[in-house]
UniProtKB/TrEMBL annotation:
This is histidine kinase. It comes from Paenibacillus nasutitermitis. It is found in: Cell membrane. It comes from the Bacteria. The chain holds residues 524 to 759 of 759 of the full protein. Residues 20-225 form the Histidine kinase domain.
């Protein structure tokens, strides 16, 4: 069955988040400490151990990196940008990766202007997170539809629809919980970070999914100038 969620309503507090980060970082740190202790006591660290240590370090780096996106000082510098160009940039960035996975991006930009007030890099990060999830959900390849449409007169909607494995119903309510991942090497931070960024842009994010059919994520953002057509009727 299909389920719909307005996720920006369910956000964790900073305290919960900090506890989660501490927990997620402590695990790899414990592993690293164990191996160093082993080296100290037995002098028997081999290449396999070092490989594990490196991948644990990479994991810490990945987790810290995802949080830095939220904490960057320029995060508050909102500028007037056209969402068509921001999304277009991200699509070009990921195009070759998609191609390698036998995935085709199909774009439908049904708007004439998409001026919004935003922090460009943060918004790019959201589109990267969502497109990566879509790519990762389609191991056999397929198409990802990316559309821009007006919603009402004052908002733009951005939707990303994949033909991937989908999300089981009992998992949908957990999306956006920090560190909730269905992947072996996932961080479970992409959706949470994206929701926070969209919320700080006064937008909303909805996720619908059907197992073995696909997933659609729809973001709405306020436009700076409402849609220019139809023109306002002159007062007489
Ligand atoms: P990560 O990708 O690191 O696991 P995310 O927060 O980006 O973390 O996603 C959390 C989980 O939600 C994923 O692990 C995956 O199980 C599920 N998910 C997210 N997007 C999709 C999608 N487009 N199709 C299928 N599953 C998805
Ligand atoms: Mg992800």
């Amino acid at each position: 069955m299909e389920e719909l969620l307005r996720r920006s309503e369910k956000l964790t507090t900073v305290g919960q988040l900090a506890a989660g980060v501490a927990h997620e970082i402590r695990n790899p740190l414990t592993t690293l400490r164990g191996f160093l202790q082993l080296q100290l006591e037995t002098n028997k660290l081999n290449t396999k151990h070092v490989d594990i240590m490196l991948s644990e370090l990479d994991r810490i780096n990945l987790i810290v990196g995802e949080f830095l996106i939220l904490a960057k000082p320029q995060a508050t510098r909102f500028e007037e940008k056209d969402v068509r160009f921001i999304l277009g940039d991200v699509i070009s960035l990921l195009d070759s990766q998609a191609h390698l996975c036998d995935i085709e991006f199909l774009t439908h930009f049904n708007i004439e202007t998409g001026l919004i007030s935003c922090e460009e890099n943060q918004l790019k990060q959201v589109f990267i997170n969502l497109l990566k999830n879509a790519i990762e959900a389609m191991p056999e390849g397929g198409q990802i539809q990316i559309s821009l449409d007006y919603k009402g007169s004052g908002e733009v909607s951005i939707s990303i629809v994949d033909q991937g494995i989908g999300i089981p119903e009992d998992m949908i309510s957990k999306l956006g919980d920090p560190f909730f991942t269905g992947k072996d090497s996932g961080t479970g931070l992409g959706i949470m970070v994206s929701q926070r960024i969209i919320q700080s842009h006064q937008g909303t994010m909805e996720i619908r999914s059907k197992v073995n059919v696909g997933t659609s994520v729809t973001i709405t953002l306020p436009l700076l100038q409402g849609r220019s057509d139809p023109p306002p009727r002159p007062l007489r």
